[in-house]
Design a protein that fits this description.
The chain is an alpha/beta fold and 191 residues long. The chain has a single domain (9-190), classed as Rossmann fold (3-Layer(aba) Sandwich), CATH 3.40.50. The protein is 24% helix and 30% strand. Strands 5-4-3-6-7-9-8 form a 7-stranded mixed sheet, sandwiched between helices. The chain is globular.
């Protein structure tokens, strides 16, 4: 008797805003680590009143947890970068599920470091950086954000990393920091 294969999907939940409580399917793929509800709730409490009408850049979108949460909280525009083609495809499917036009959410299947090497047409007000752990992606991303002009004055940069990652040496002010399990979350302000 043939065994039925288990579905290769999980789900994320939008915790606030216009889509509060909506669940979206995500791939159950190695290395894909959606931001937990607890961490996401903390982050969006920190950002309360700072998301509406803002331009956001999600550098390692993965499940889209942070991108969709920002849009639910009335972000004006989000660019979601995801290198893994199947995850990027899932992001686009969830975009359709929520009826989000491309003028609000631009999902790109690209390598983040290569993407950041170009100069943007317009800067961003909020950047989410939740890279794969232990791949040494944070420092090069921060350098490119600074040197290529990706950040608008007063921009916020959220970095989610493994617990052992030391604080960055960046020209940004650390606004908030919190550890939950093996994850440390930091929110910086670009002056």
């Amino acid at each position: 008797m043939a065994r039925q294969q288990k579905s290769q999907t999980g789900s994320i939940r939008i915790i606030g805003g216009q889509w509060r409580g909506r669940k979206l399917p995500v791939l159950a793929a190695e290395g894909l680590r959606p931001t937990t509800d607890r961490v996401k709730e903390t982050l969006f409490n920190w950002l309360q009143g700072r998301i509406a009408n803002r331009r956001c850049l999600d550098l390692f979108a993965g499940s889209g947890s942070l991108s969709f949460e920002a849009l639910s909280h009335q972000a004006d525009y989000v660019v979601a970068l995801e290198k893994f083609a199947k995850a990027a495809s899932q992001l686009k499917e969830n975009q359709q599920r929520l009826n989000v036009p491309q003028s609000q959410l631009d999902v790109r299947c690209v390598d983040t470091l290569k993407f950041l090497q170009q100069r943007p047409e317009q800067g961003f007000d909020l950047v989410f950086m939740d890279p794969p752990f232990r791949k040494n992606m944070i420092v090069p991303c921060c350098e490119l954000l600074i040197h290529q002009g990706w950040l608008n004055p007063g921009a916020w940069v959220y970095i989610e990393s493994e617990q052992e990652f030391d604080e960055l040496s960046v020209p940004w002010q650390l606004y908030r920091e919190k550890s939950v399990g093996q994850v440390i979350s930091r929110l910086y302000r670009f002056e």
